[in-house]
Amino acid sequence: MNSVIQKANRIIIKVGSSLVTNDGRGLDHAAIARWAAQISALRNLGKEVVLVSSGAIAEGMLRLRFDQRPTDVHELQACAAVGQMGLAQIYETSFRAHGLGTAQVLLTHADLADRERYLNARSTLTTLLRFGVVPIINENDTVVTDEIKFGDNDTLGALVANLIEADALVILTDQKGLFSADPRKDPAAYLIAEGKAGDPSLEAMAGGAGSSLGRGGMLTKILAAKRAARSGADTVIAWGREDDVLTRLAGGEAIGTQLLAQTGRTTARKQWMSDHLHTAGKVVLDAGAVAKLSKEGKSLLPIGVVEVRGEFGRGAVITCLSEDGTPIARGISNYTSSEARRIMRKPSTDIETILGFLEGPELIHRDNMVLI
Ligand SMILES: Nc1ncnc2c1ncn2[C@@H]1O[C@H](COP(=O)(O)OP(=O)(O)O)[C@@H](O)[C@H]1O
Ligand SMILES: N[C@@H](CCC(=O)OP(=O)(O)O)C(=O)O
């Protein structure tokens, strides 16, 4: 089978600490330069790429002259803050060599569980992609303790794949992919070329949670693939030092382990929206807006809304009805119910004057909407 990366338009690439820091010996300039060159080539193919990079703690330990990983959480946090400067610097320089700008985005899992922050992170990332910038994401280690203890950027990569509905997640690591058992311990272990994301037998191969404490290990990668598949993203786990790994994947070559999502993006998104039915407020649309949504695939603008029913917050999933009460679409509202009442029937150019701020010209952006 061809690599799923060939067809993927929006790709999250996660690189692990050992790769980025040359097994803790210091930032691997040459490897990072090679990935930057390949990501630039992917961008020239029209693909959008977001990089999730670990390595802040490993690099910070080196800069603060720790021989061993500190056990004190606040010392780890200090290492992460110091090391992150190195990461930001090297990525900026490496991508600049290809005429690409970078942006630093530090996130916590809690940020992505909060609806409003989730929407903000989503809008910022998609705007950065629109600007042609490569977002470089890491955990915001200063403010969290759980993630720092378990070191889990694999999960963050999957959450970002869900957040911006990526087509694929590529996890680059220090092994050629998922093996039937940990290849460091079992010399007879063989590479699994393809599997179904979410297949429980894969978790057993990754050795269980016990072996993944301290660093993510393979289990968090398998669980990340399962999570990424919820929004329809396929996952590839591959060796980060394989020659031209990213460009070869983009060329269709199957390298490493492919874990395929079992539901497509549209089905996954519909599922997500239907999971949020219980929070729904409602908006009633005029005939013109109904046609724009259902026939032309457009966003919902406030001008097409004639009534707002119920109370809801920004980021709530709301249902759009036609004037005869037929459900048309469901989607995430950019405005609260009281704001929506003030801007309904008004052109989007008036929103800022009426509310004093602008979250976006649309009440529900097309990307956040499914037709019923
Ligand atoms: N079934 C398996 N296949 C491959 N690697 C495995 C497996 N089970 C455990 N591992 C271990 O997982 C490690 C990769 O995880 P980790 O060290 O967290 O990397 P990263 O820093 O890239 O996230 C490998 O070096 C390997 O020892
Ligand atoms: N935020 C941490 C991430 C730690 C982590 O997940 O590491 P890894 O298992 O190597 O991807 C850091 O930058 O060190």
Automatic annotation (TrEMBL):
EC annotation from Swiss-Prot or TrEMBL: 2.7.2.11
EC category: transferase
One Pfam short name: AA_kinase
Binding residues for substrate: S54, D141, N153
UniProt-recorded Gene Ontology molecular function terms: glutamate 5-kinase activity
Residue stretches making up the PUA domain: 281-364
The organism's place on the tree of life at top rank: Bacteria
Binding site for ATP: K14, T173, D174
Pathway assigned to this chain's UniProt record: Amino-acid biosynthesis; L-proline biosynthesis; L-glutamate 5-semialdehyde from L-glutamate: step 1/2
Subcellular location: Cytoplasm
Keyword Transferase: yes
Keywords: Amino-acid biosynthesis, ATP-binding, Cytoplasm, Kinase, Nucleotide-binding, Proline biosynthesis, Transferase
Enzymatic reactions: L-glutamate + ATP = L-glutamyl 5-phosphate + ADP
Keyword RNA-binding found: no
Role summary: Catalyzes the transfer of a phosphate group to glutamate to form L-glutamate 5-phosphate.
Similarity-based family: Belongs to the glutamate 5-kinase family.
Name of the featured protein: Glutamate 5-kinase
Organism expressing this protein natively: Massilia agrisoli
